[in-house]
Structure formats: structure tokens, C-alpha cells
Design goal:
2 copies of one chain form a homodimer. By secondary structure, chain A is mostly helical. Chain A is 70% helix and 0% strand. Chain A has a domain at 78-224: Tetracycline Repressor, domain 2 (Orthogonal Bundle). The mean pLDDT of chain A is 92. The first copy, chain A, binds a DNA duplex through residues 2, 4-8, 30-32, 35, 40-44, 46-47, 51-52.
Chain lengths: 224, 224
DNA sequence: CTATCGTATCGAACGTCGTTCGGTAGTCGA
DNA sequence: TCGACTACCGAACGACGTTCGATACGATAG
């Protein structure tokens, strides 16, 4: 009795693609790996997606849909900036949990409707500040630029050793800090001034402090 | 008479790699293309770099060296934040002029000493605000996160049509704006509120306005 | 001038990737 | 029972990063 042909669906294709990205990072997502996971042939995937770019766009938008759901579910407070802050932190957390997200999220394409909805949602919170269109547009651009940019930066994959559990993040950071300490204090006064902060810092704290800076600037503008 | 063997150097390898990246984008930088340009064989390049990652790191650091030179050459004013602003704008301009820079700059590695020097240079300007180490560290992280993140976002390669000169950036932006206008104003009030600002906007203005927000927040903190 | 040796170069091959093509199994209405 | 349409897939293609062993070159020593 011959083996039955496999049967896929857009849903399963995207779900499994996301699973691979989450488990093994963006380099591991190949059509062959995905086909293997789906128990089918490589070419079958091309019935659902035109190319890898579209696969990544759909995978990205799929998880952004979830993030948007979480964000939108939260009730609004009376302070728009506080709401914006909450949303920004949630977005940041989602991106650092999935380092592969950042790079593809930067590509605003037609194939990412949920990204557009998220943009709209954040924009509505900025609108409540009653700034003119120009300032409103710029304010949201600044916040999103900061969030995505910082997440992309901080969310980079640490070297393989950390991933494989041979080294902790703290040791990795500590070795970097050590190199800072060994540099010439004459040439690198700043590195020495902040090295103790750098060593053992938490990415989330760093992000949060910077976000406060952006939002403080925004509040200043809104109150003017 | 047999053709002579080609003769390379680290300098020429990196210079030509940067030339390819500038002329045709990061997808065009292959070992074969680079070898062809150098008039030699593919394997020769491996005598200078261990792998493609190192090639990209060296290329990135090479141009960051130039950027750092330009930035450091400017004289300091009496206002640290104004100096920081000037440096940030110069860095932003450099990255948007070379969209491929952003992605590789995010990867803080040992092989990018100039990136570390740039970090130090910007840090020294923040130090002049006399904030404690923790706040100083966070402030620089925020500024850099914003600059690189926004540059990476805005500096994305537009679709092929624009690159090939078949469409102008304005038309491309306009078509996007058109889609915003066609969306339901009930569901997308924000898009409609800012669409006129979006249509025909200049990336540099958008960046500059957002940077002002961040720096206003920083100034607020410094004056406290 | 010749022999030697480390340096630098290169042709050819390997395995993997995204993508394409032609064909075929499965399903369903007529 | 029969086509026709949908969904699937094996096999191949060209391009990529990378490796290996061979070899040309330039400097040095005899």
C-alpha cells in the first residue's frame, strides 16, 4: 500500500516556518527544512508562497498579529504617553524574544497588513496628544525607530557559545567589559566611565531608560 | 607568453568589496564578483579573510573609519548636545548613503575597532553633560539605537523599480499614500490624519525631528 | 646563477541553497 | 466513467560560500 501524499495548508506552512525560526534562528529556515517538517516535498511550498521573501513576510506578519492582539487587548489609561510606553515595551519584548523579527519588520510591505494595523494602533495613541499632523507623524516615527532599532541591536544572536549553553550571557558580557577595562583610559575615558554599568546590565533596563528619554521629549512637546 | 598572476592586498580587497556594495547593494557582493573585479581567482580572497562575515566586518569598519574621521574633524562647540546632534546627523547621512551599512554595524564585534572608537567619541560628548555613569550609558545607548534603527528603517532599498530609475521616489511614496487614503477612515483614523505629511516627506526631516525629541529628553535630564 | 623556501595565487570540486519544470495523485461535478 | 482542476512532488539547474591541493612567484642563501 503506497504512502498517501502529504496535505498542507497556508496555516500549517506559516506556523511551521515560525517554529523553525523560533527554535533555530533565521539561518535554519530553508525550504528543505520546512518541507521535511511538513512531511512533504520542497516544491509544494511554492504553491503557497512565491518565494522566500514572501514566506518571511507572512511569517513575520503572523506573529505581529499576535503581538498586536496582546497590545490591543490592554485597556487604555487616561495618559496617552503611558499607553504608548506600555505598547512600546510589549513590542520590544516580542522582538527580543524573536531576534529574527526585527530585520523583517523593517521591511514595510503590502504583505504585512498586521504591521500596518500595529502602526495605526500606536499612531492613535500619539494622536491623543493633539499635536498637528506633522508633529504626530514625526513622533510616531521616532518611537518606532527607537523601539525597532534598539531591539534589532540588543536582540542580536550572541555568539554560538552562548546559544549552546557553554557560556552564560554574564560571562560573555564580562569578557567584553574586561577588554574595555584593558583599554587605555587616556584614549577611552568614556568606556572606563561606564564599564561598570555595561558589565552585567540588563537589556530591558537599557531599553526602558532610553524609551523614557524619547517619551520625555515627546511629553515636553505635547505640553507646549 | 603566459599571463601573469594577479597580485592583491588587504587594502584592495576591502576597497573593491566596498565599491561593489556601494554600486549594487549587499546581494551583489559575492566572492566570485569580488574576484572578478580584482582580476584573480575566488580562492585568493580567502588568504585575506577567513569567511564572508569577516569580509563584511572589515568592509563596514573601513567606511566607519572614514565617517569617524569626518565626525572627529569637526570642532566642538560649547553645547555638548549640539555636538552630539551634529555627530548623529553625520552618522545618519553616512548610513542612508550606504544602506548596507546599517545591518552590519549592529553587529558589535572585535573586528570593528573603528566602530568602537566612534562609540567612544559619541560617549565623550555625552559625558560632558555630567550625568552619573548609569544615565550616561543609557543616554548614549538611546541615541545610537535611534540613529542606527531609524537609518536601517529609512535606508532600506526601495523596490527594484526605483533603483532602475523607472519610478521616482515621489511616485513610489505617492502610491503608498494613495493606499492609505483608500483605507477606511473609521478603522484607520491615524493614517488619514498624517497621510499628507507622509506623502512627499523627506527622510532626513523625519529623522531630524525624531532626533530632536530624543535630545530634548536628554537635555531635560541633564538640566535636572 | 641556481637551489630553496615561505608567501600568495588559483582551478576545480563539494555541498547547500532558492527556484523551476514537467508530471502525477487526489478530488469532484457532470 | 470521465475529464478538469487542484494540490503535490522528484529531479534538475545555476549560484553561492567554502575547501583542497597544486603551483607560480619573490626573496634569500649557497
Amino acid at each position: 500500500m503506497p504512502r498517501r501524499r502529504a496535505s498542507h495548508s497556508m496555516e500549517s506552512v506559516i506556523t511551521e516556518a515560525v517554529a523553525i525560526l523560533d527554535e533555530a534562528g533565521s539561518a535554519a529556515l530553508t525550504f528543505r527544512a520546512l518541507a521535511g517538517r511538513l512531511g512533504g516535498g520542497v516544491a509544494s511550498i511554492y504553491w503557497y508562497v512565491d518565494n522566500k521573501e514572501e514566506l518571511l513576510d507572512r511569517a513575520t506578519d503572523h506573529v505581529i498579529g499576535d503581538v498586536l492582539g496582546d497590545i490591543a487587548r490592554r485597556e487604555a489609561t487616561e495618559d496617552p504617553i503611558e499607553d504608548l510606553r506600555t505598547s512600546a515595551v510589549m513590542l520590544f519584548d516580542a522582538v527580543t524574544a524573536r531576534p529574527w523579527l526585527a530585520s523583517y519588520l523593517l521591511r514595510n510591505t503590502d504583505l504585512q497588513p498586521n504591521a500596518l494595523r500595529l502602526y495605526e494602533h500606536l499612531g492613535q495613541q500619539v494622536m491623543r496628544l493633539d499635536l498637528p499632523p506633522r508633529e504626530t507623524f514625526h513622533a510616531l516615527s521616532a518611537v518606532i525607530g527607537y523601539v525597532i532599532g534598539t531591539a534589532a541591536d540588543l536582540g542580536q544572536q550572541p555568539p554560538a557559545e552562548v546559544l549552546e549553553g557553554q557560556t552564560t550571557r554574564e560571562e560573555y558580557l564580562g569578557r567584553y567589559a574586561e577588554r574595555w577595562r584593558e583599554s587605555d583610559p587616556q584614549d577611552y575615558p568614556f568606556l572606563h566611565y561606564v564599564v561598570e554599568e555595561f558589565d552585567g546590565h540588563q537589556d530591558a533596563d537599557q531599553f526602558s531608560a532610553g524609551l523614557d528619554l524619547v517619551l520625555a521629549g515627546l511629553r515636553l512637546q505635547a505640553d507646549r
